Amino acid sequence: MCTGEAVRPGGTLRAYRALLGAQARSQTAYRASFLLDLLGNVGATVFDVVTVLVIYGVTRELGGFTLRETLVMVGLSASAFAVADLLVGNIERLPTHVRTGLFDAVLLRPLGALPQLLLMNLPLRKVSRGVFGVGVLVVALTSAGIDWTPARVALAVVAPLAGVVFFGSLFVATATVSFWWVDSGELANSVTYGGRDFTTYPVTIFDGWFRAAFAYGLGFAFVSYQPALALLGRADPLGLPSWAGWAAPAVALVAAALAATAWRTGIRHYRSTGS
Amino acid sequence: MGSVTATVAPATSANVTRWFRTFGALSRAGFRRYSTYRQAAVAGVVTNTVFGFLRCAVLLAAAGSGTVGGYDRAQLATFVWVGQGLLAVVLLWGWSDLADRIRTGDVAADLLRPVHPVTSYLATDLGRAGYAALARLLPPVLVGPLFFDVCLPSRWPTVGLFVVSVVTAVVLCFGCRFLVNATAYWWQDARGPLLLWTLGSGVLAGLYFPLRFLPEWLQLVLWCGTPFPSLLQTPLDVLVERDPPAVQVGLVALQLGWAVLVLAACRLVQRRAERRLVVQGG
């Protein structure tokens, strides 16, 4: 594929498509396993929702919020995380690529490193999870008794998209750590999967510095909690003004800018492991 | 029986001392192998700690100022924090050594050794669990009480029962993982079964929420019909003294039953697999 000539614009696109096609073929090669994979991936999100339902089975409210209200947050969080995980999530394999030296090969090719990595690993099996996540959001929004205004309709569309950008940035930023710390392994999970768990519940159930760090320091409050309050028309028990829900896209853009900076710095500091 | 297996026939005079020495050596090797990944252990502990805070907050919010599912607040905090540590000790997730070796054909080397594959993998896994008990169980157990009120056992037999329960859980979990990995003997690629295992074990072992939150008939089905509650929920219930002593003993006995059953299944599956195994490649 790499002929050493200058790559024509159409050629770049074709190269990306070839990468994607090769992925699709290889991932569906073991058909039984792929079907189980599809099923299993939707299961992960199903169980997240089941967990919320089970917990509401033993209590009437969580941090002052009813099940219907919490489900809006669950829907926002699940759909944003699932789609970001589908598109960008496999960047978490970067440590492996750095360790095995595959990343050197990626850098040598005349295509962008990040798009290549994402397309090389695009996990098609996670499509099922994205579809289910969006489904949960739609059901939650229609059953929460929201007083729909044009602004709220816009927010209901923009907030999950901002969430995708936010979680995507988080995936990229945390993967960047492996440029410096190859064995960082699970560390990224604490903010990516941890963030998903955090955004599933109302921020009010957490307290102290943990809440300060996750909700406002890392910005997770703006993924689901604040937009959900704005959609439901509830005042924030923690005192943030009502426009905070509409700040979600701005927070996502800041996150994306930080992630891009981290990625560029990481690439510049990258020294091959020599393997 | 006269059946042909790929493993070398064991020595005719079974020497128990030698068997124990081999088992011990393999366990020590497992301990050393995993103790070399120190950075990974640190990263794992940080992640377990973050999830400790998350899960603890959710369960305490559900309890309010009272009890929920038969646990009070201190019991819930202990349940979550010890659970985060035990997760790495029983190693619910992330073991695909056997499946990888089957796919690459390296498993052929395991079959040539004069130790039964189930035995040698179990010995290595016990060594790994020993290291995890130090590096992964202790930190969350020490961090939790700094931020939350936890409960300590009030009856001394609980401590002994807890230790037995944890060791049994490790053996049982190993057996389950072995069975899931062994599907690669038939399918080459065990990713699908591994994923289903990851999913099912997390929720059915009591990691996401204590299984006592479920209706009682469902609890009965899970405990008696599946090995999952015996992996995590049972040791934790024993430790926080959720039940009177007789029930505690009963739960551990049930756990032991599952461990024996699953290990027997491992040996059976291994024997069936060896008859049909074709090592790929040259």
UniProtKB/TrEMBL annotation, chain B:
Report what the protein is called. ABC-2 family transporter protein
For this protein, the parts annotated as crossing the membrane are 40-64, 76-95, 129-148, 160-180, 192-211, 246-266
Q: Does the keyword Translocase apply?
A: no
Give the organism the record lists: Micromonospora antibiotica
Fetch the InterPro entries from UniProt.
ABC-2_transporter-like
Pfam families per the UniProt record, alphabetical: ABC2_membrane_6
The alphabetized UniProt keywords are: Membrane, Transmembrane, Transmembrane helix
tRNA processing listed as a keyword? no
